[in-house]
Amino acid sequence: SLESAEEEYQGQTKRKRIRRKKQKSSFQNSNNLHGEQTESGMQETLVQDNLQLQQIDSPKISKNKKRKMKKKRQKEKMRAAGLVTKTTGVDFTYQPDKNNREEAAGLKDIDEKADSILDFLQATQQIYFADNKSECMDSAVNSATAQELLQYLESRTISSSDVTLLHQLKSLVLLQDIERLKDALKQFQEQSMMPPDHTKIVTSLFHYWITDILPVKNRK
Questions:
Q1: Global pTM value
Q2: Which of 83, 88, 172, 195 could serve as 78's disulfide partner, Cβ 3.0–4.6 Å?
């Protein structure tokens, strides 16, 4: 009936109100408790601070001790800010110079290697193309691509790791060590960061040394 439905609805709303009150009061209690804890924590800290101040200001502590304590606190602050300790001072003073010297030496070394490879490859490609070896090779291996590679070397648009690999190949040619040169050439093909057509040019030029130039030199 309508009356019983209305009574049930009022009963539900009443229960909801009671529940809401309970939740609200428990929430307030927890807030109060948290507030009390925070306040008590702050009070403890203040008490400790006051005690320390009293100890410092106490006439029992000598002026000398006060001065030492003050110095100690200053040192701790400076250490926290990273401004103290002799060793770090020395590191900061001398380390960058050492690093700069090593870096400059490394760059000079790469620069010299690049120049020597440039001269070596220039001479090799002149003989290679004059000997018409390029006719039976891949279309990527042509004099225009070879010139592009040499320009890359000249302008240093080449990674230092590739310069190191090329210098190793050149050294093995000068040593006339064909077996090690073959292994180094495989390593170069696997590790080179050059564009594929440049890698092919390098491979062809050094392969030319292995097949045509060094065997003739060795026979002599």
A1: 0.53
A2: 83
